Fold this protein.
Amino acid sequence: MITVSGVELRAGARLLLSGISFTVSPGDRIGLVGRNGAGKTTLMTALAGHAKPAAGTITHTGDVGFLAQDSRAADPHVTVTDRILSARGLDRALQRLRTAEAAMADADGPAALERALNAYAR
Ligand SMILES: Nc1ncnc2c1ncn2[C@@H]1O[C@H](COP(=O)(O)OP(=O)(O)OP(=O)(O)O)[C@@H](O)[C@H]1O
Ligand SMILES: [Mg+2]
């Protein structure tokens, strides 16, 4: 859950948002709408904990994933799917699953297979 209380956001001296309070609960799907430069990305960056608001508080329970709007800094060899999954570290989890699958296929004997099956289950 993300709890936002009395938040104010600024870009330099310019006031973007003030008096913002809301909560985001597990399972919520929310669209954030505003004109270009209104402060949507600035708000998302603050929600993810990558920037501090000028005033007010933002608290989280649990991990918050964040997929940056600007993909220019992204690795061009990463697939679209992996980039989206990377917002919450799921690309690395998928990679570990693939490694565990290969270990199951390559297991030479029941003990090695047991270890590989346990690793895959974890
Ligand atoms: N690094 C920065 N330095 C100074 N001003 C900035 C910086 N980043 C953003 N701004 C300004 O802050 C304001 C809000 O920008 P922000 O990127 O949050 O808007 P946005 O709603 O996400 O816009 P868009 O719809 O174009 O994605 C804009 O006026 C922008 O020019
Ligand atoms: Mg933006």
